[in-house]
Specification:
By secondary structure, the protein is an alpha/beta fold. It has three domains: 11-50, no CATH class; 62-159 and 295-321, Response regulator (Rossmann fold, 3-Layer(aba) Sandwich), CATH 3.40.50; 162-293, Response regulator (Rossmann fold, 3-Layer(aba) Sandwich), CATH 3.40.50.2300. The protein has twelve helices and twelve strands. The chain has helices spanning 11-18, 22-30, 37-50, 69-77, 80-95, 107-117, 130-139, 162-175, 190-204, 223-235, 249-261, 295-310, and strands spanning 62-67, 98-103, 121-125, 143-146, 156-160, 181-185, 215-217, 243-246, 271-276, 289-292, 319-322, 325-327. The strands form two sheets. A six-stranded parallel beta sheet has the order 2-1-3-4-5-11, with helices on both faces. Strands 7-6-8-9-10-12 form a six-stranded mixed beta sheet, sandwiched between helices. The N and C termini lie far apart (86 Å).
């Protein structure tokens, strides 16, 4: 019997087996960006099966995901929070990290959760509470705000570029000849305020009306609230409009229903746009033109940013915004 030890599996062996470059395998196993999550998981599993030593410096560490009330409400109302968490879970699995979830109801509750879980890092999902930011900063635990930001820049953050996204959407409507439009929102969070600002940026730059009488506010993200708000606008003889930009796809669903109830054809008479690009909007009649928010990508990238801090990388706090893209379907038409 030979006393030779089994040959050590090399990075090139893995790359050849998977049919990819060695640099791709290296990035995947190191948890660096630029590799699809499904492919990354395949590579990690293949490496483990082949006996390749996957970097273990942070494996099995616990990450606390503290979600605000608005995040939990959103989880019930539509799929945005679900998609962000889906991206987090996939990335955590690839990195070998464990996620512990905590509803952020009070700062004292967050403090107790930090003490109880003793996490290696914290992700604050859709949190706007400055006291929560101050607490986490004072504890010195690595932390990233997801879908929000810290006005005092104590903590790094990651969010969609809400203002530019709304401006891009409004520019798209203007390019189709729309000069009078409404903005429908659930006010309250800074992220939504930035969408309103982007809508106004585009209109005011062209001298088009964008006053408060053209902003419809609802108390929840439910389609029926949006439906009621638009019907009320029509009944009271509010400013005329040929387009409605909604701060979320769920609100656009209510707008479509209200217009159908009044016999207003979309997009022949009124165009409707949303923001989110939820999977269900492709099935609506007409399918919704919307801005795609990189929800899953945001969840995964938040863990990448957090891992840098957990590895001891000391950099100034940063505010990262991800570009959104237009998904053109059939709910926007030209003004003739």
């Amino acid at each position: 019997m030979s006393d030779r030890k089994p040959s050590k599996v090399r990075l090139k062996d893995l790359a050849d087996r998977l049919g990819v470059s060695t640099s791709t395998v290296s990035r995947a196993l190191a948890g660096q960006p630029g590799v699809r999550e499904d492919l990354r998981r395949q590579m990690v599993e293949a490496a483990l099966q082949a006996g390749y030593q996957v970097p273990e410096d942070l494996r099995d560490r616990r990450i606390l995901v503290a979600a605000s009330g608005p995040a939990m409400t959103d989880y019930v109302r539509n799929q945005f929070t679900f998609l962000v968490l889906d991206g987090m879970r996939a990335r955590a699995e690839a990195l070998g990290l464990r996620l512990a979830f905590h509803p952020l109801e009070t700062v004292d509750g967050l403090a107790a959760s930090l003490d109880g879980h003793a996490p290696a890092g914290v992700l604050l999902l859709s949190v706007d509470d400055p006291e929560a930011f101050a607490l986490v900063h004072a504890r010195g635990v690595p932390a990233i705000i997801v879908n929000g930001d810290d006005p005092w820049m104590r903590l790094s953050s990651l969010a969609p570029c809400n203002r530019s996204s709304a401006r891009y959407a409004t520019d798209h409507l203007i390019a189709h000849g729309h000069r009078e439009m409404l903005f429908l929102q659930r006010p309250g969070r800074p992220t939504i305020l930035r969408r309103l600002e982007g809508w106004r940026d585009a209109l005011s730059a062209r001298g088009l009306p964008c006053g408060d009488d053209r902003v419809l506010n609802v108390g929840d993200w439910l389609p029926e609230e949006a439906e009621a708000a638009l019907l009320a606008h029509l009944d009271r003889g509010g400013p005329p409009f040929t387009a409605v930009l909604c701060a979320a796809d769920s609100l656009a669903a209510g707008v479509l229903k209200a217009l159908a109830a009044r016999g207003v054809p979309v997009p022949d008479a009124v165009s409707v746009m949303g923001m989110d690009d939820l999977p269900v909007v492709e099935f609506w009649q007409p399918p919704l033109t919307t801005m795609h928010l990189p929800s899953r990508e945001m969840g995964g990238m938040a863990l990448d940013m957090l891992r840098e801090q957990m590895r001891g990388v000391r950099e100034p706090a940063r505010r990262v915004e991800l570009a959104c893209r237009l998904v053109e379907r059939r709910s926007v038409g030209r003004v003739t």
